[in-house]
Amino acid sequence: MFAFTCRGVYFALLFYSAEGIVLSTVDDQLPIVEVDDGYPSSLMADFQWLLKVGCTWEDIQLLQKESSKASSSSSAHLRHKLMAAVDAMQSAVGLKDLGQLHYEPIRDTQNSVVIVTVSCVTECHSCPSVSLRWAKIGKLTKKQLANSEESSVGMKQVVAAIPQLIAFNQNRQCNLSRGLYLGYLKLEASVDLLQVVVPLDMPSVLPHVKLRDNPNVSKEEWLCLKSDEKQTDSKLSLACVEFVQLLYSKAKELTTKLGVSDDDIEKHHVYNAEVVELSPAVAFILLLPSSDKICTVLGQSSPMKQDTSFTMLPLPLFEMIQWQTYQSELIRLYCRASATLDIDQLLVQHCMREAFSEDEIKTARARQEHISFYLKCIEDVWRGMHWMAEAVQCGRDHQISALCSVASLREQAIARVSCDGELSHKTKRRLPSLDGFPSSELGELRVYPAYDPTLDPNTSVKVKNVSHVTCCNMSIIALT
Hints:
This protein has helices spanning about 45-55, 60-65, 75-95, 135-145, 155-160, 160-170, 220-225, 240-255, 260-265, 305, 315-325, 330-355, 360-380, 385-395, 405-420, 425-430; strands at about 10-15, 20-25, 30-35, 100, 105, 110-120, 130-135, 180-185, 185-190, 195-200, 210, 270-280, 280-290, 295, 310-315, 405, 445, 460-465, 475-480. By secondary structure, it is of the alpha+beta class. The strands form 5 sheets. Strands 1, 3, 4, 5 and 6 form a 5-stranded mixed sheet that branches. It has a 5-stranded mixed sheet with strand order 11-8-13-12-16, with helices on both faces. β5 (about 105) and β6 form a beta hairpin. α2 runs antiparallel to α3 (about 75-95) and α12 (about 330-355) packs antiparallel against α13 (about 360-380). The longest helix has 27 residues, at about 330-355. The radius of gyration is 29 Å and the shape is globular.
């Protein structure tokens, strides 16, 4: 235990405190356990399964006991070894909760892979093992840099990454304050991986800007986004006009902050199929780039990829981090059920291969059908949480029915500010400004009163638009 060789898969633990100290071995390296001396092809799939287990560390011994029944199976071999390594680490530190797994394993030039779990401890208790102690981060770094052994390459990388590991662990736990937000969805695709762009200082959410403190969207506001451009003459309330104006101005603010060119801003779309509710207090409206830019290919340049304040996360891992931040109890229950059923499925597949008589085959097949049914039930319930996959599919497939263009928002806001017959002159003066909106007539403001002006129907008044004009000081130019 706590040995690091040149090649293999390892499980490492990073316990840190606010005082800048970490749990280390007497050899000044992080506690680390060997999982496997090779590099299994199923490593990444099993790592994603381990992310589920990481939400319910207390079930490790039970899962390990069950998986041991099929440990000879190639599909369950690495999972059994991973759980054995976790169990050994729990025994070494005397704690069940090992914290949160870092979103990606650390790889070195010697073909070693280190899976790291990170946790912040409030109190540095005495270590249950004589081979462990608390040490300053700087001491570990200095000791590893002085180590010239070839076998220490992987540990050097892990120790060198401690500041980044701690920073990411702290940032992933940051919650947004109560409110409604506009989030920007941008992805990168490779052959077998889809990654999403997230802020480095808050990786549990998309790049965003706050719209308002109230996270709820009224039916009237939402219908305003779902209406087409031909319906801009319909009479809407002041709240709807303000909502459209706010959404447009914030979309412009967000895209400008992300380095989007002026020519591309109005090619973006608002995803109007749903409001994404991360929690009862935090909701998102999604802003999508044009269909040809929502998902770039690996190696293609973009302003966001060059910005060091953003990073890329694999889509399943981003969803896991987001759920752990905003739906921690729900994701814990889901992962507990899913991880247990995954082990049961491996066991029944092993039994199917070993079954010889017709009765054994029939029993194994019936059990497999039951497990498959429960897995399908869980996934059906959980499918509603996979909002990002649906939004991406919509954005890439030109499903305009579920999209509202930013250009359309702009036109709606202009039309409704200038044509809404329910808004009086005094009410219009309360509307937020529309940066960049051209006026319909230079130097004039056309007013349609909401009260009875004792004039003929469809009569309007042109008011000279000068700086000293107020509601009580208007110069009538003409009646039309």
